[in-house]
Design brief:
This protein is an alpha/beta fold. The chain contains 16 helices and 21 strands. The protein starts with a strand and ends with a helix.
Length: 491
């Protein structure tokens, strides 16, 4: 049997399956676009049926070429919530995406009852769906319904309905678990009227959980992780203080903090959240997460709404065609600001425009604004953890943009290491599954396989960087509080 691993990676806009080889290289990728929809402002729904179909279709396409694999790994967009019929597999009610804000008011009501939940976690999403499809909870109590995040849903379909499980990294962002992420919180379940019978078993991130019997050869499902945690190990981040930033639709900095559990699951004073980085053999490696709500979305705005270029990759050459923004600053806050301020009422701002400002300057300002937000995340993570980052590891679609990566190096004052795999998430899920079946003996063996594609050093002085950061912080402050009522909301 091949020692390679099949990985099914479900992102916000597509499903792709790939072969991850023992040396960490990724080949034979088959990808299908599965876009979310927004039926009304603030609502984001995902095509769960489309995800299941694409997962099976792409996985089978890879196996037609590979013949056999040692294991299957799953990586996924986190917190997106699906309810389905346990017997038929029929999706019930809307499948709600992680960005969906329909439960904001409910989250505020629950605060008054002493339960603090954010609208981007799964808890109130499940409640909203169940209130629609099983208001009296009769079917829930009878064990007829399944509530799951995307990892659970995909594993259920790959296994022909025999595996109903989630891993600790995904369970930790549902809002339904205890502080150790080992079991569900009975009080939360009672308040939200979510029956334990509807919820999946919480498993290790790496280790065999069942067979993918819907695939040729029924390979074991042996790795499962949220996309950001998969990317973390995909970048070789295994020791306390190791970190990476993934620049996709948004931007996520994840840092390993170590084996000691955090004192609280709540957001820290610098705007980061504790996470489970991975769990193996029941032992948890903890981490933290700093979040940028808008990153690649801003490039899509330039392309699709303003018509600045035809392809997102064109932003690189356009921004490089000028050497400065000529005083223009862009604050990427289309959905508010995440770490460190968590101001949901902040809005995007384009400041310093003159009659001479052109497409090139605006494009460069957008890339620089995202880079400055990257520096915000780095500073917050360092302050929260006490660890200092010597280098910045990056992956995701925007890491292919050379101008952006250079601006990030300048904004952070650190060398930036670009991942040799643009989508380190897939590689990381492959590593976790390989660990689960013994392809690798340790995480140290995995980390030794990971080498950056290149390293980009800062090109400005510390004084220039400090001045640019001071300007940025002033401009960012101007974007805050644009919608005061939203700015006053905290989760």
């Amino acid at each position: 049997m091949s020692s390679s691993v099949l990985v099914v990676d479900v992102g916000t806009s597509s499903v792709r399956s790939s072969l991850v080889h023992p040396d960490g290289t990724v080949t034979n990728t088959h990808q299908v676009t599965v876009l979310p929809t927004s039926p009304a402002p603030g609502l984001v729904e995902i095509d769960a049926r489309g995800i299941a179909t694409a997962a099976l279709e792409t996985a089978r396409a890879v196996l037609e070429i590979a013949g056999s694999v040692a294991a299957v790994g799953i990586a996924n967009q986190r917190a997106s919530s699906i309810v389905w019929d346990r017997k038929t597999g029929e999706v019930l009610g809307p499948a709600i995406g992680w960005q969906d804000l329909r439960t904001v008011i409910q989250c505020l009501v629950l605060q008054g009852e002493g339960l603090r939940l954010a609208p981007n976690v799964s808890a109130t999403k499940y409640q909203a769906i169940l209130d629609e499809v099983d208001p009296d909870r009769i079917r829930s109590a009878a064990g007829e319904l399944c509530c799951g995040t995307v990892d659970t849903y995909v594993a259920w379909h790959l296994s022909g309905g025999t595996v109903f499980a989630t891993d600790a990294s995904n369970a930790g962002v549902t809002g339904l678990v205890n502080a150790s992420i080992t079991d569900y919180d009975d009080h939360v379940l009672e308040v939200l009227r979510i029956d334990r019978a509807t919820l999946p078993q919480i498993c290790d991130t790496s280790g065999i959980i069942g067979a993918a019997s819907a695939l040729h050869g029924a390979p074991p499902i042996a790795g499962m992780a949220g996309d950001q945690q998969a990317s973390l190990i995909g970048q070789g981040a295994i020791a306390p203080g190791d970190a990476k930033i993934t620049f996709g639709t948004g931007g996520m900095l994840n840092m390993v903090t170590g084996p000691d559990a955090p004192s609280t699951a709540a957001r820290g004073p610098h705007g980061t959240f504790p996470i489970v980085a991975q769990r193996r053999a029941g032992r948890t490696l903890w981490g933290l997460e700093a979040i940028m709500l808008s990153a690649g979305t801003c490039i899509e705005w330039l392309r699709d709404d303003l018509g600045f270029f035809d392809h997102a990759s064109d932003s690189d050459a356009l921004a490089a065609s000028c050497t400065t923004t000529d005083g223009v600053t862009f604050v990427p806050a289309f959905l508010g600001l995440g770490t460190p301020t968590w101001d949901f009422g902040a809005r995007g701002a384009l400041l310093g425009l003159t009659r001479g400002t052109g497409r090139a300057e605006i494009t460069r300002a957008v890339l620089d604004g995202i880079a400055q937000r990257g520096a915000d995340l780095v500073e917050a993570a360092e302050a929260e953890s006490g660890h200092q980052l010597a280098t910045i590891r990056v992956d995701g679609g925007m890491s292919a943009n050379a101008t952006f990566v250079g601006l990030l190096a300048n904004a952070t004052g650190r060398p930036v290491e670009r991942s040799s795999e643009l989508e380190a998430t897939t590689r990381g899920a492959g590593f976790l599954a390989g660990l689960g079946v013994g392809t690798y003996s340790s995480v140290e063996e995995i980390a030794a396989l990971v080498q950056p594609a290149d390293v980009i050093d800062p090109s400005i002085s510390d004084d220039e960087r400090a001045a640019a950061r001071a300007t940025w912080l002033d401009r960012r402050a101007r974007a805050e509080g644009t919608i005061p009522d939203l700015s006053g909301v905290q989760f």
